[in-house]
Fold these 4 entries.
Entry 1:
Amino acid sequence: MPEFIGLLLLAGILYVIGVFWVERFRLGITALLIILAGAVLFRVTLLPARSTPSDDVYRYQWDGRAQRAHLNPYLVFPNSPELAWLQNPEHPEPPGEETPTIYPPLSELAFRLIETVRGYKRVSTIFDLASAVVLMLLLSATRQPLHRVLAYAWNPAVLIAFAMSGHFDSLAIVTLLTALFFLVTNRPALSMGALALSVLSKFFPVLLLVTFLKRVRLAYLGFFAFLVLGFYLPFLGAGLHLLEGAGNYARDWVNNASFFYLLHFVARSKAGAELGAGLIVLVVSVYLAKRRAAPLWSSLVLTGGVLLLSPTAYPWYFTWSIPFLCFYPSGAWLLMSVTSVLAYTPAIASGAGEPLKNSLLMLSLEYGPVYLWLAYNCWETYWTRLSPGLKELGSPAIRMKRYLAEWWIVR
């Protein structure tokens, strides 16, 4: 459905205009109420959608059914002939049908409590709206305008991922934001506890562990480890298979990658590329911690940067970094949050009977403008920091504007 992608891109343009409006003008309580009402209305409108651009929710449902049948989701998988009775007749082939679950235990425990696809979408949306509330608490704590919550609440990628598709990344996001709120307000035990819950929902928040440990006593790492182990305890019967699903995912999945392809070309192997990507993320994480970068800035850099380096960057993964645009409305990453919806095109084409594969054209349209913008930002920063003399003259872009203005006057 090219119309669907077109509508998403149009919504993205309107969204960027909204972010600009919030940044440019001082708005009152009426504008804030409109932003919040719009956020709720958009989600309520999308919740009843019968079709979704992603089928992950059916794997959640299968994992939940397996647990209610007293099976360990880290040992069983949907393609097992003896477990055919657990399948949803409306969607008999959930994702990853030949591998045990890839999800951490807090998500698995949540899957156990929900039975219907609508239920998953509703709960995901509740977590999503809760994230908007926590974002406003964070904005207040950092003395920034509450209207900036629009950067998250109205983002099309967020709306499609949670209200329409029911992805449970919203659980990891709300717990991560809660952890950051407690960190910013100097409540270390609660911050590490919430970070543990976030990692137990989805693995990506572990990227910020070094950032947190730089601001709390090392003893709180024990509390973090205690919580993680406690939630894994009910599933320890899986033994060495506990992380088999996650391992299979890391080994086999490649989808919507960008810079990873360059790493793969240099390293000549997927394993080498993954090692290189991991080292880059580790170096950046340690550098940000050593420089004592603001936790919210570190969160944007790490959750956004890892997707540019990752072999797999599904469009809903970009929701991980979108909350931090409320604090740092980076033009390049605002654009990325809009163009990321192009990554839905393979799934939509597959639903129409075409092969499931990434298109070079779509990847170029999705990532090309973003990398160009990032390159321009680096170029601008380099020239403005090169020397005091050049600072006085201004960046090349500013000098070009001056040159054109002078040329016009002379002419």
Entry 2:
Amino acid sequence: MSRQFINPNRRRFLGVAAASLIVSAAPLPPSRPAAASEGPAIRPFRIDVPGAQLTDLRQRIAATRWPEQETVDDRSQGNQLATLQNIVGHWGTDYDWRRVEARLNALPMFMTEIDGIDIHFIHVRSRHENALPLIVTHGWPGSIIEQIKIIDPLANPTAHGAGATDAFHLVIPSMPGFGFSGKPKKKGWAPDRIARAWTELMRRLGYTHYVAQGGDWGAAVSSAMARQGAPGLLGIHINLPATVPSEIAALLAGGKPAPAGLTEKERAAFNALDLFYRKYRAYGAIMGTRPQTIGYALSDSPVGLAAWIFDYNNGELERRLDRDDVLDNVTLYWLTGSAASAARIYWETAGQSIVLSAAQKTSEISLPVAISVFPDEVYRAPETWARQAYPNLAYFNEVERGGHFAAWEQPALLSAELRAAFRPLRQAL
């Protein structure tokens, strides 16, 4: 990880005034690291990007060599030129990185070395007694920026219409190769290894009982923790579950039609996955086979990086999220130079899909599993497939709105889902 983001003479957190910059109607609750965080193994972290890097970014954007316009009237060839130029024009002029830098610095952030690599994480403790520790994992093309909006609703529930008994202590780490975490120098950092690192992180923070949550790759990591029987882990919540049966996966891989006998919801899931694999998942095939090659382009061109991220799932981020929220995330990838290292998680898993039950070994998970299905996700996981995939499915709910980036797009709704899903596990303590 580049040390230029750490100012060693400024080992303090922003005060109450800075905390008001967090995207939340209410101020954050007082936060402090667990007692175990005060040891030498865990050190405070602060972002302080040199101004020269921001100047360089704007200069590179201004010097972009653009391709010609697409030859169609839709985005079937990818990002449309006029739309991307509008986004990038704002990024290179009016966009303000210091705004999100202040929002992140207002949170308690730390760094610790686990398994030979630096792990960056946010650690917010609720003021409420008996708050349940929760580790939340992002995916690609996301980062910790995805989770900013769920911090206050989960740590400070009484300010958001929920009860104090629904409070969480939050641990939000950056996966290896992502954001401010270190970049693996050797292969082997697949979800199983990340899961073991997260187990050590929670132990190091002094948590003896906790739960885990994730979408996208975060779902794979959380599932791996459950499959490994991480000490202290009570259960998991995922919003991109691996429910696709092997026989369905084989048909999709071979471009075959849906089999007879599917229910309406199962057929809808099959069709959505078929469309996604045929038209919208080229990024996964490239990063799963040639992450280093695409990494050269993404590390050299900020506009190329923005196009790569904004194009996810046929432009979902462009359609459903605030433009500056996405640019915060793209800028984080750029400033940390993490496009190639983040892409390698696809190579590490040999192109295995995170929605296939067999690939994620869901039958080996005995801990309680909770699933929330957002209607505009890559596919709407049918409950029939979910119950077949997860032996101990303790909670299943189809919510009324939202897509792949639930924490980003629907923070209040996802927070309500987590409260409901984990409430029975609190009662068991």
Entry 3:
Amino acid sequence: MICNLKFEKPQFFIRKYLKFVLNIWMFTKINACLYRKTKPHIAHLKQNNIMQKLQLLVLCLFSTFLAFPKGIEEKKSEVKTETKTEAKVETKTEGEEDKKGSFTFSGYIDSYYIGNFNKPASRSNLGAYYARAFDQKAGQISLGLVQTKMQYSNEKSDVVVDLAFGPNADLGNYGNVLGALGSNTNTALAIKQAYFNWKATSKLTFTAGQFGTHIGYEVIDAPVNFNYSLSNLFNNGPFYHIGLKGTYAFSDKVSLMLGLVNNVDNLNDNNRKKGLISQLFINPAKGWNVYLNFINSNEANADDNGNTPDAHYRVFDLVTTLQATDKFLIGANAAFGSQKGSYQGSAALTESTPWGGAAGYLSYAASDLFSIGARYEYFDNTSGARALLNRLGNGTSVNSLTLTGNFTLADGHLLIKPEFRMDSYKKLTGTGESGRQQFEDSKGGFTKNSQSTLGLAFIYKF
């Protein structure tokens, strides 16, 4: 019988319940009539009172039955309404979040110590002419750069304010030394990047403002590069641009960037000409990226009449990275440049003068805490077009080898990088040239054509 009841429909129980209530009500009525005919008056009153109470109980049971199904339905209705309302609120909240966007704050600070095996009397790592980009002083604990980067992003746009302070920030932003009100009141020196992106479509993005260069393998940010000291290719290329560019993604494997910019590394343009920049990105296979970069501009100062002399500064640049395995990364950078005419006030080159170089990068992640890497670079400026010169002021070439360890601590926030670097320049030969080599010795004489340094860098990023 119990098994049968499990399969009965709800209507069966309702009919049974109504029949039960009706039987009780009829019983109370009939019994009331019988008691009025057969019992004394007092007994009749008592019984009548009992019957009234019993009838009241029946009405309560009946009203409970009537109310119970209705309550259930109302509750179900309320739950459905609340669920729909909550869904609408959640949808609205997600939509509002997309429109509102997100704000991020990040940055880093780095410091270093470098020992120079030549023990130069001046403690300078620069040698005759700009042998190092940033780590210029030996024998002291030095502050490198302090970065504070703020970024706001939403579905249609981004804005980036990247401020940098410290010695390396000044060196990297040398073109902004003279501000609108003079060097004593200059705040532009702190602007490493300040630009916005407008995502016109899902494939097309426009960028305007001051942004880091696309030329080269390395960047100014110490946490991004594997090696701490920067290459000669980085030091002799552009650092940043001010202008407008657009990037179109044909797919997730191919994109093209084109832009117009002011002269290289400067807050204020020195002529009316605009430079052309471009980058073609190709992803031929998983883990393999190729960047073909280009810049062509006229860097000559305008004459007294505002006319710009015939000149060019031109660089073809190739960068490629290959993640050979989960632990092994291979990288390469090759650049060919040429200049003609004056470069921002320098002596004019009467004909197109070439310069260039190449670098190879290897790094191996031994564990989550330690990795090791090497960089070999050759840079050729024998024509004298760039700033890498010898003691006589003529062009030269250099071979450089850098070995770097990378310890990652404090949940990835702290990077400790021990580094050995050796730079070897062409040795000057001839009478009286022994004291006119590239690097300084402990007595202050330039008797060394090579330089070896050993350093330790500390980088904290957030």
Entry 4:
Amino acid sequence: MYRQVEQPPTPPENFELPFEGKLSPDNRWVIMANLIPWSEFEEEYAQNFSEEMGAPAKSFRIALGALIIKEKLGTSDRETVEQIRENPYLQYFLGMSSYSNEAPFEASMLVHFRQRIRSDLVNQVNRKMVSESTDSEEEQRAPIKLDKTGQAFC
């Protein structure tokens, strides 16, 4: 059975968000953003640029993050930028501190990102993520040691 209910359209500024304006820490993009050691690879990425010439480049996190988003969503360059523009979780993943309805870069920048981030750098990031994930799991499984008074120690 279907009953048609007349509802006036809700203006976008009155649309209620279920997370009360906060991002959910269990969202897949939030979790992945925290797994990637962005800063460890920034210097290697920066070697692609001159310190004196040209416009300031996008950060390593934006560049690699955009390529990861494109790959995971299976979208075109233009659609990737549009998804980022519309989605606060994707913007958080790229390291933005607040939501913006503006695209953070033109779709053509993805071509440059692909040229500057070589597969060996992506492989290094992957290995580091796996290594840190394995280390974290081992720490969680390590038995807790107690001293004579029953206090835990490492």
